[in-house]
Every structure is written in structure tokens, then in C-alpha cells.
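Try it yourself: sequence plus fructose -6-phosphate, in.
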Amino acid sequence: MRLYRTKDYDDMSRKAANVISAQVIMKPDCVLGLATGSSPIGTYKQLIDWYNKGDLDFSRVKSVNLDEYKGLPRDNEQSYYYFMYNNLFKHVNINLDNTNVPNGMEPDSDKECGRYEKVIADLGGVDLQLLGMGHNGHIGFNEPDDVFAKTTHCVDLAESTIEANKRFFASADDVPRQAYSMGIQTIMRARKILLIVSGEDKAETLHKALCGPVTPHVPASILQFHNDVVVVADEAALSKMPK
Ligand code: F6R
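Structure, out:
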């Protein structure tokens, strides 16, 4: 595991974008695993900036997103497809046919989760998976549990996640209660993983994830077992780490 300590969120975003652009430059037809949320917004902005300067070409890139709310259509402003379209896809020359987000409108969970795993397998797996981390250590929507979830599955969201995400909805009641998410095994199969973490409110969990025991109660701790992980975190997020 390689750990990059950055000054702040912007610095983290630039470093993370550097790792992603290196991947795209080295393998122009790579498969990027993408995430939503506040952590990657700055990273996507930086990628868009470099694309606009002519330094990056997404024309052959393929993407698979980690997760999607169950029950939200793509054009719902809170859907993760909508987020990806507006924060990255529409600003760069990625072919939308090469982008993949779980279909939140498929009511049959087994069918959708099986289809999504097949999409990833047919693409030949993920070259670089970008991850944010929840306050409780979740990655994707893999919430703390007694076991590690394996492949793409339908998740009942934890109360703390509903609380954290309600800022995007009219009220907590409007936050969907379920989501489709890649499982821990799906994530761990990525050839390279880039975890980005910012803010003091995640410092304690980040310390547990990187230095504590590997446990499904801190899902991100599983990353200690992956052989190619880059963590880019700002000073605030690293404030509980030994100096
Ligand atoms: C998003 C995702 C989540 C977020 C996590 C952190 O696709 O899978 O695991 O990465 O909830 O969210 P932010 O970045 O908003 O703190």
C-alpha cells in the first residue's frame, strides 16, 4: 500500500487525478471503476481540466461505477448515473455506450446483480478502481457487517448512510432504502485501487481501516489485503495516523 499525504482536498484531488491520468495514458482502452459522492468531485474536475487542455483522451476508456440507488431512474437528480453524467461523462469524450452504472430501475435484484457482474467480467475486469470511504468505513455501499459481501448485490442502507446522504434529498424519508453495489470481492478483483479520503471527520475510521484489524466491521480495512492500493488522503483525514 502506498500512502500519499496531501495538504488539503484540492491537493488530494490533483494527486488522485494524476494517478487516473497515468492509467489512461498508459492504457488508453482501460477499464476505470468510478465512484460518486463528494470525495471524487474535485478529481473529476481536474480530469476535465486536463481533457480540455488536450492532455487526456477518454475515447477508448470504459467505465463501471460502484453503485446505484435501487428505484431511481437515470434522470433523477440524485441517481448516481445523473451524478456521473453531470460531473464527468458529459464534459469529456468518453463514449456513453462504454459507461456502466447498475440499473436502479431493474426490480429483480438477482437479475441486475448477475448482469452487472457479467458486464465487468466481459470487460476483462477493472484496471483501476477509484474509491471514497464512508464515515463508518463503507466502500461502495458495503456497510459494516459480520461478513464481507462478495459480488454485486442489493444492499439495505445503514441508518448512518441514509443520514449522511439525506443532505442531497428533500428529507431523510426520500433517501432510497436500498442500492445495488459491487461487493467486496468485486472491488478486490480490480488490478489497482485508488482510495481518496478527505476531512477530519473520517480520520478515526481511516486510521482503523489502514492500521487496525481487517474486519467486515470496517469494510475498507480489506484493502490491506490488496497488493496494489494507493491511498491519497489529506492531512485532516490522516490526523489520527502515527506521525
Ligand atoms: C459512492 C460510494 C460511497 C462513497 C462514500 C463516501 O459511489 O460508493 O462508498 O464513496 O459514501 O462518500 P463521500 O465522498 O460523499 O464522503
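One thing you can check immediately is this: Residues 35-39, 66-67, 132-134, 138-141 surround fructose -6-phosphate (CB under 6 Å).
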